[in-house]
Specification:
There is one protein chain. This protein is of the alpha+beta class and about 270 residues long. It has one domain. About 35% of the residues lie in helices and about 35% in strands. The chain contains 8 helices and 12 strands. It has a 12-stranded mixed beta sheet, with helices on both faces. β7 and β8 form a beta hairpin. The N terminus is likely disordered.
Length: about 270
């Protein structure tokens, strides 16, 4: 299973359509902004292999990759029902609508077979959920894949639902990139976390990958999330830069954007 730099957002729950449109329109009207810094680690490694910064504003969520050579920004435009991808190195952008993401991931679900047990489970998840109300720990377990999420009570009333909306669309977007898992297991985790009014603080993911002759190996990843309930001056500067780039960058198809992205990662 390959893990792209965007796996951060996939893990950062990096957590189906989330909630109702009226709920999110109401939450955005409140003008509550917040930020989330995310570090993603492999197994027991001490240094993160991916770092992201996510800025939540009225109707727009900006997701910045801070590590590695690839300088990509993803803008989730909830009011317009679209996702904008910006490649600042090549001055290009592409747009996917929510309808396109739903259609693409639904096709992925229908095409996934049991020949690949991990992908099949991610497309057809069956978790056993458990929630520790004292510690705010959500566990979604199965023989194939297990999430353990240490949650944190959101200081803003709408934050948990807004985070779920972002995490859902991020998971669908990641699934459209080659090598990434279908989003449906992650959607289950996102929904369960939001039902308890939590945002993630630390997430552990364990995947059992079957091998030959009945053997198996375990993949482990961890993400840590730092939430601040106000945006900094630098955050606003980032947003202003992105707004200018959206107007200047060349528009290309998602297929062309993805091909260029593959070359950039080699």
């Amino acid at each position: 299973m390959s893990i792209s730099l965007r796996a951060a957002t996939l893990l950062c729950w990096t957590l189906a359509l989330a909630g109702t449109l009226s709920t999110f329109c109401a939450s955005r009207a409140l003008g509550q902004n917040f930020r989330m810094e995310t570090d993603v680690f492999r197994a027991e490694e001490k240094e993160p292999f991916c770092k992201t910064l996510t800025l939540f504003t009225d109707g727009l969520v900006y997701d910045f990759i801070l590590s590695g050579e690839m300088k990509e920004v993803t803008i989730f435009d909830m009011n317009a029902g679209r996702v904008i991808l910006l490649d600042s190195q090549r001055a290009m952008k592409t747009v996917l609508t929510h309808e396109q993401l739903v259609r693409l991931t639904t096709s992925l679900k229908l095409e996934t077979t049991s020949d690949n047990p991990v992908f099949y489970f991610a497309a057809n998840p069956k978790f056993t959920p458990k929630f520790d109300e004292v510690e705010n720990v959500l566990t979604m377990s199965s023989e194939r894949m297990t999430y353990r999420v240490q949650g944190k009570v959101a200081e803003q009333d709408s934050a948990a639902q807004r985070y779920q909306e972002l995490a859902d669309w991020s998971a669908r977007l990641n699934a459209c990139r080659p090598g990434n898992l279908p989003p449906f297991a992650r959607l289950e985790v996102n929904r369960a976390l939001a039902e308890h009014g939590l945002v993630p603080f630390e997430v552990d993911l364990k995947i059992v990958v079957p091998g030959r002759l009945g053997s198996s190996r375990k993949l482990e990843m961890k993400s840590r999330h730092l939430v601040n309930w106000t945006l900094s001056t630098n955050d606003h500067k980032r947003i202003e830069t992105v707004s200018q780039q959206i107007g200047k960058f060349e528009m290309v198809s998602f297929e062309k954007y993805s091909e260029v992205e593959k070359v950039a990662r080699k």
